[in-house]
């Protein structure tokens, strides 16, 4: 069985999504046009080709292997790969000198177009480069305060010449004063590349707290709730949990990992945590319903409440809310979009079938 081939939706659905430029199918499939030899993302704004001249592939690598070239307008390889080389170079420069204040002139001197950089960061981090840079410096200051540095040292070490300016920026970013920061919990975040589009992962010392697709509407409210209700100070960074989820997600999408082992920390109400615990028990490649979960919890009439708690799950894929379907077999809602939900279920089902075939 060809794992990648089984990941494609039905042909009619692919044609409709292509003709309507449905961006919710980003990463689910790629369109290859036989008459031009070019392949595109589903939402490409170029003139739609005739369906008879098109073939569909599950990933960019298959398009390249079939002899197609990347579209210059929608740039499908940019979404299929990790950060482009020019962004990786900038990351290296920032790591080498975290206190540097990057001006447009300095960016241009490095061959980086400021507007292009702004767009890339907004798409993949949900903020501009300069906002990310400020958050990163403040995150380093937060780490210093947690380790016993004075507020003065933290301010000047992070490049602020004014204590009042540092305090204002710190409170605006973390919703707490520097004086209270020693008692707060840093929540570090990083961007992850997946075949279904960029995701953001957040983790504190106890484990992974959030894993969501960057384009979903519920992301900002979720982050605000973590800050306001649970006292987290959110900043760019990296830790062991974020490194683990990056590696494990890669293996999951390759069809070789069926159970995540990264540590999790899931603040929420008692009922929500009970629902999330049941979600985590749904076997790979299987599905269940809201009603079945409610019955397991001893609350057979609480399907709606289970659905709400399921929707408040902050850990996409790892806590597999995508494995919950309607009683009639329909996919029902999914914060990342139903095309992604369908893709994840096809991925798991195909991997299970391959495993079963190899066992015989």
From TrEMBL:
<dbReference type="Pfam" id="PF01035">
    <property type="entry name" value="DNA_binding_1"/>
</dbReference>
<dbReference type="InterPro" id="IPR008332">
    <property type="entry name" value="MethylG_MeTrfase_N"/>
</dbReference>
<dbReference type="InterPro" id="IPR036217">
    <property type="entry name" value="MethylDNA_cys_MeTrfase_DNAb"/>
</dbReference>
<dbReference type="GO" id="GO:0032259">
    <property type="term" value="P:methylation"/>
</dbReference>
<dbReference type="InterPro" id="IPR009057">
    <property type="entry name" value="Homeodomain-like_sf"/>
</dbReference>
<dbReference type="InterPro" id="IPR018060">
    <property type="entry name" value="HTH_AraC"/>
</dbReference>
<keyword id="KW-0963">Cytoplasm</keyword>
<dbReference type="InterPro" id="IPR004026">
    <property type="entry name" value="Ada_DNA_repair_Zn-bd"/>
</dbReference>
<keyword id="KW-0489">Methyltransferase</keyword>
<keyword id="KW-0805">Transcription regulation</keyword>
<feature type="binding site">
    <location>
        <position position="44"/>
    </location>
    <ligand>
        <name>Zn(2+)</name>
    </ligand>
</feature>
<protein>
    <recommendedName>
        <fullName>Methylated-DNA--protein-cysteine methyltransferase</fullName>
        <ecNumber>2.1.1.63</ecNumber>
    </recommendedName>
</protein>
<feature type="binding site">
    <location>
        <position position="71"/>
    </location>
    <ligand>
        <name>Zn(2+)</name>
    </ligand>
</feature>
<keyword id="KW-0479">Metal-binding</keyword>
<feature type="active site" description="Nucleophile; methyl group acceptor from methylphosphotriester">
    <location>
        <position position="40"/>
    </location>
</feature>
<dbReference type="InterPro" id="IPR036631">
    <property type="entry name" value="MGMT_N_sf"/>
</dbReference>
<comment type="similarity">
    <text>Belongs to the MGMT family.</text>
</comment>
<feature type="binding site">
    <location>
        <position position="40"/>
    </location>
    <ligand>
        <name>Zn(2+)</name>
    </ligand>
</feature>
<dbReference type="InterPro" id="IPR023546">
    <property type="entry name" value="MGMT"/>
</dbReference>
<dbReference type="InterPro" id="IPR036388">
    <property type="entry name" value="WH-like_DNA-bd_sf"/>
</dbReference>
<comment type="function">
    <text>Involved in the cellular defense against the biological effects of O6-methylguanine (O6-MeG) and O4-methylthymine (O4-MeT) in DNA. Repairs the methylated nucleobase in DNA by stoichiometrically transferring the methyl group to a cysteine residue in the enzyme. This is a suicide reaction: the enzyme is irreversibly inactivated.</text>
</comment>
<keyword id="KW-0804">Transcription</keyword>
<keyword id="KW-0808">Transferase</keyword>
<dbReference type="InterPro" id="IPR001497">
    <property type="entry name" value="MethylDNA_cys_MeTrfase_AS"/>
</dbReference>
<dbReference type="InterPro" id="IPR035451">
    <property type="entry name" value="Ada-like_dom_sf"/>
</dbReference>
<feature type="active site" description="Nucleophile; methyl group acceptor">
    <location>
        <position position="321"/>
    </location>
</feature>
<dbReference type="GO" id="GO:0008270">
    <property type="term" value="F:zinc ion binding"/>
</dbReference>
<dbReference type="GO" id="GO:0003908">
    <property type="term" value="F:methylated-DNA-[protein]-cysteine S-methyltransferase activity"/>
</dbReference>
<dbReference type="Pfam" id="PF02870">
    <property type="entry name" value="Methyltransf_1N"/>
</dbReference>
<dbReference type="GO" id="GO:0005737">
    <property type="term" value="C:cytoplasm"/>
</dbReference>
<keyword id="KW-0227">DNA damage</keyword>
<keyword id="KW-0010">Activator</keyword>
<dbReference type="GO" id="GO:0043565">
    <property type="term" value="F:sequence-specific DNA binding"/>
</dbReference>
<dbReference type="Pfam" id="PF12833">
    <property type="entry name" value="HTH_18"/>
</dbReference>
<dbReference type="InterPro" id="IPR014048">
    <property type="entry name" value="MethylDNA_cys_MeTrfase_DNA-bd"/>
</dbReference>
<keyword id="KW-0862">Zinc</keyword>
<dbReference type="Pfam" id="PF02805">
    <property type="entry name" value="Ada_Zn_binding"/>
</dbReference>
<dbReference type="GO" id="GO:0003700">
    <property type="term" value="F:DNA-binding transcription factor activity"/>
</dbReference>
<feature type="active site" description="Nucleophile; methyl group acceptor from either O6-methylguanine or O4-methylthymine">
    <location>
        <position position="321"/>
    </location>
</feature>
<feature type="domain" description="HTH araC/xylS-type">
    <location>
        <begin position="111"/>
        <end position="184"/>
    </location>
</feature>
<dbReference type="InterPro" id="IPR016221">
    <property type="entry name" value="Bifunct_regulatory_prot_Ada"/>
</dbReference>
<dbReference type="GO" id="GO:0006307">
    <property type="term" value="P:DNA alkylation repair"/>
</dbReference>
């Amino acid at each position: 069985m060809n794992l990648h081939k089984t990941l494609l939706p039905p042909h009619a659905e692919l044609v409709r999504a292509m003709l309507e430029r449905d961006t919710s199918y980003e990463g689910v499939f790629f369109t290859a046009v036989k008459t031009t030899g070019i392949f595109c993302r589903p939402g490409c704004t170029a003139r739609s080709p005739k369906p008879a001249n098109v073939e569909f592939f599950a990933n960019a690598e298959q398009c390249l292997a079939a002899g197609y070239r990347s579209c210059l307008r929608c740039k499908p390889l940019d979404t299929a790969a990790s950060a482009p080389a020019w962004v990786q170079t900038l990351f290296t420069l920032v790591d080498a000198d975290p206190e540097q204040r990057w001006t447009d002139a300095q960016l241009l001197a490095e061959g980086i177009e400021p507007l292009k950089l702004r767009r890339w960061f907004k798409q993949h981090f949900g903020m501009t480069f300069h906002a990310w840079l400020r958050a990163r410096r403040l995150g380093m200051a937060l780490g210093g305060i947690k380790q016993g540095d004075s507020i003065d040292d933290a301010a000047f070490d992070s490049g602020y010449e004014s204590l009042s300016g540092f305090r204002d920026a710190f409170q605006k970013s973390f919703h707490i004063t520097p004086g209270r920061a020693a008692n707060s919990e840093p929540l570090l975040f990083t961007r992850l590349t997946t075949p279904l589009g960029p995701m953001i992962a957040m983790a504190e010392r106890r484990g992974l707290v959030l894993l969501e697709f960057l384009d979903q509407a519920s992301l900002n409210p979720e982050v605000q709730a973590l800050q306001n209700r649970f006292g987290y100070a959110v900043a760019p960074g990296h830790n062991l949990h974020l490194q683990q989820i990056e590696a494990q997600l890669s293996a999951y999408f390759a069809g070789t990992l069926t159970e995540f082992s990264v540590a999790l920390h899931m603040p929420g109400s008692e009922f929500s945590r009970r629902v999330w615990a049941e979600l985590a028990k749904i076997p790979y490649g299987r599905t269940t319903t809201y009603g079945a979960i409610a019955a397991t919890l001893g609350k057979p009439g609480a399907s709606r409440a289970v659905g709400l708690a399921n929707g408040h799950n902050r850990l996409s894929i790892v806590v597999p809310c995508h494995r919950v379907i309607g009683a009639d077999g329909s996919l029902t809602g999914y914060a990342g979009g139903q095309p992604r939900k369908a893709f994840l279920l096809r991925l798991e089902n195909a991997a299970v079938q391959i495993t079963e075939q190899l066992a015989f």
